[in-house]
C-alpha cells in the first residue's frame, strides 16, 4: 500500500535533507560513473514518489554528489537510518503526550518499537551492503520498509504528526530499497554475462 504524500509533506521532507542491461557498457556505467542528475533520473522513476526522490537526492549532502549506484546507496542508507532513528524518537515524544489516552498509547508504543526494529534492520543492511551482499541488504530493507505502512494502518485515522512521520519514513526507506535492488540486479546481470566490473565508491 502506497501512502499519498501531500504537497506540504513533500516540502517538509525536502527541507529536512536540504530498458534491460544488454551490453557491457551499460553494466559498467551503472556500477561506475554517472553524472548525479542522470543517476537520479535513472533511479527516481522506480520509487514510490519520483519527484520527491529527485529533490531529496539532489539536496541532501549525502547524495547530491553521488557518481555511482554504490555511492548513491551509501548515502541513501545513511538517510534512511537517520530517518528511522528520528521516527522512533518522535513517536516516543508523542507517546509521552498521550499518557491519558490509553486507546492510542498502545499504538504509539508499537510504532515506536517497530521503528527501533527498522533502525536495526537498516544497520544490518548497511553491514551486508559493505560486504557486497546486496540480496541480504535488500531483504533487511524490505522489513524496514513495512514499518511506516503498518504504523499508519494501526492507527486507522492517525494524528497529523504521526502521518508525517510515516510518510517521510516511507519515502526515504523506499529510496534506499530501490537503489539496493538496482545494485542487486546489476550484480545478477553482470554474473549472467560473465563480466568483471570493479565497483567504485
UniProtKB/TrEMBL annotation:
<dbReference type="Pfam" id="PF04043">
    <property type="entry name" value="PMEI"/>
</dbReference>
<keyword id="KW-1015">Disulfide bond</keyword>
<feature type="domain" description="Pectinesterase inhibitor">
    <location>
        <begin position="35"/>
        <end position="179"/>
    </location>
</feature>
<comment type="similarity">
    <text>Belongs to the PMEI family.</text>
</comment>
<keyword id="KW-0732">Signal</keyword>
<protein>
    <recommendedName>
        <fullName>Pectinesterase inhibitor domain-containing protein</fullName>
    </recommendedName>
</protein>
<dbReference type="InterPro" id="IPR052421">
    <property type="entry name" value="PCW_Enzyme_Inhibitor"/>
</dbReference>
<dbReference type="InterPro" id="IPR034086">
    <property type="entry name" value="PMEI_plant"/>
</dbReference>
<dbReference type="InterPro" id="IPR006501">
    <property type="entry name" value="Pectinesterase_inhib_dom"/>
</dbReference>
<dbReference type="InterPro" id="IPR035513">
    <property type="entry name" value="Invertase/methylesterase_inhib"/>
</dbReference>
<feature type="signal peptide">
    <location>
        <begin position="1"/>
        <end position="23"/>
    </location>
</feature>
<dbReference type="GO" id="GO:0046910">
    <property type="term" value="F:pectinesterase inhibitor activity"/>
</dbReference>
Amino acid at each position: 500500500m502506497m501512502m499519498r504524500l501531500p504537497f506540504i509533506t513533500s516540502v517538509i521532507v525536502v527541507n529536512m535533507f536540504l530498458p534491460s542491461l544488454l551490453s557491457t557498457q551499460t553494466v559498467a556505467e551503472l556500477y561506475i560513473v554517472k553524472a548525479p542528475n542522470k543517476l537520479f533520473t535513472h533511479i527516481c522513476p522506480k520509487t514510490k514518489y519520483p519527484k520527491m526522490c529527485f529533490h531529496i537526492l539532489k539536496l541532501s549532502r549525502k547524495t547530491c554528489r553521488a557518481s555511482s549506484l554504490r555511492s548513491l546507496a551509501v548515502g541513501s542508507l545513511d538517510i534512511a537510518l537517520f530517518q528511522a532513528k528520528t521516527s522512533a524518537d518522535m513517536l516516543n515524544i508523542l507517546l509521552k503526550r498521550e499518557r491519558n489516552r490509553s486507546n492510542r498509547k498502545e499504538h504509539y508504543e508499537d510504532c515506536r518499537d517497530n521503528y527501533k526494529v527498522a533502525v536495526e534492520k537498516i544497520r544490518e543492511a548497511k553491514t551486508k551492503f559493505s560486504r557486497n551482499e546486496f540480496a541480504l541488504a535488500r531483504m533487511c530493507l524490505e522489513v524496514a520498509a513495512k514499518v511506516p505502512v503498518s504504523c499508519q494502518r494501526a492507527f486507522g485515522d492517525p494524528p497529523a504528526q504521526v502521518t508525517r512521520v510515516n510518510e517521510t519514513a516511507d519515502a526515504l526507506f523506499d529510496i534506499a530499497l530501490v537503489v539496493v535492488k538496482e545494485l542487486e540486479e546489476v550484480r545478477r546481470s553482470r554474473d549472467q554475462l560473465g563480466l568483471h566490473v570493479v565497483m567504485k565508491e
